[in-house]
Amino acid sequence: MELVFSKWVFLFSLCCWLIFSVAVAVEGVHGGSKVRGVNLGGWLVIEGWIKPSLFDGIPNGDMLDGTQVQFKSVTLQKYVSAENGGGMDISVDRDDASSWETFTLWRVSELEFQFRTTQGQFLTCYGNGCSVSATANSASSTETFQIERNNNCKVHIKIKSGTYLQATMDNQLTADYPGTPGWDDNAATFEMTIVANNLHGDYQLANGYGHNKAKQVLEKHRNTFLNVGDFEFLYRHGINTVRIPVGWWIAYDPDPPAPFIGGTLEALDNAFSWAEDYSIKCIIDLHAAPGSQNGMEHSASRDGTTGWPTSSGYISQTLHVIDFLASRYAKHPAFLGIELLNEPSAAEVPLDTLVSYYKQGYEVVRKYSPSAYVIICQRIGSADPLELYQADIGSHNLVVDLHYYNLFDTFFVNLSAIDNIQFIYKSREAQLQALNGANGPLVFIGEWVNEWNVTSGSQSEYQDFGRAQLEVYNAASFGWAYWTLKNDRKHWDFEWNIRNNYLRLSSSEKKVFNSLRWLLLASICFYQCQILELVENWI
Fold this sequence. Notes:
This protein is α/β, with parallel strands linked by helices. It has 12 helices and 20 strands. The chain starts with a helix and ends with a helix. Keywords: Glycosidase, Hydrolase, Signal.
């Protein structure tokens, strides 16, 4: 009889373990064992491609910070060039244009700009009669030029005093053109080519509009892009977590350093309140660090450069931001964790610098919470996430964030629908299994999307692609978060995907939970048979 009782105790314990493992594998998450999340991208950190209309009202909107331009003299038919990429006088002597002939704009006002070379120096001119050089390491009034444009690509460039630059016959660029030039072929007229205008982030928006207008635009956007109804929608569709990108300037709200606009902290407070109302957890994701950790618009880079790892001041400032966020939200019922940094660049951020920061950030969060999840993002580019598993960053509730896109790499360009799906099952699944099996942090697919390079994909193909991703990413030990809730590009828009039946969460989720349920039932039946047999033998 003692043996029978112990079997029943074991059976009860097994059932409890199975149920517990399904329900609370991630501490505090409602409605499932793991994070089933959606990113709130494009809201508190601006990404112009998510909502391009935010930039429509900027005058000279094709000449934002970070825009790359080239100038060609209409009289010499030669390009303006910074020899060796900067550090020398400017010449006007190149037949063709490449990097030395390409300048990156720093916007001062609608008509005033500073020009940065590929080596980082600024074009400078001390006054009337000077020869322009690329020798300034920082920019002020003598590095500021005004651009006049006509209806086509022709421009005039003048210095602060009002004197126009001209291309001389000996191939120099000098500030001594006499009088006011017309738009005919003269030495002060240049053809301007915009080579790239790819950055449309917080810096470009705020500096492009100017403070007052930018404040109006962003207040309207923050108040209308998301609301409590979106959290109700997420709750109804089984989403239990939101990952909320924020910029470093949130710690200085309501008056952050120029050109950034205050108001993101109040919006984040609102998100926490809405999330609490619907039992949704919040992950705060530091998407933009001081100086930019990857040179992209979503890290608020001014000109495409990555300054964050080059300055201990930037890193200290970032730790202050983490301290601010952890101290403010650690005790909030909706708080789940903090992501210390989004998508640091593998090419620009050394591993030892990143690991040192992650270790310090982990300790900062632990000052305010012994159990909050501390999330560390893998470096984007050529970096193996295993490097973070070997770094001994923290001992408890540490999570590694991977971003899975079948995009942004030439490998995916020509893949068919079937090829993309097979890649999910063969490559992504194998990596997840390896990381889940590693003795270290939990695994989080913090960004993924139901989009690819397949042209004219059918609805059923999109459904198959989404199903494959959900089946595989459901195995991630921490969970996943879709990028993003709202987007002008419909296949990136989570709400659109759900409403139009391109992404079906229920079928994939049922498959996972059904498997666990059958495992539980099978175990119960097995031990019931064993116990009955023992009872019969005892009788």
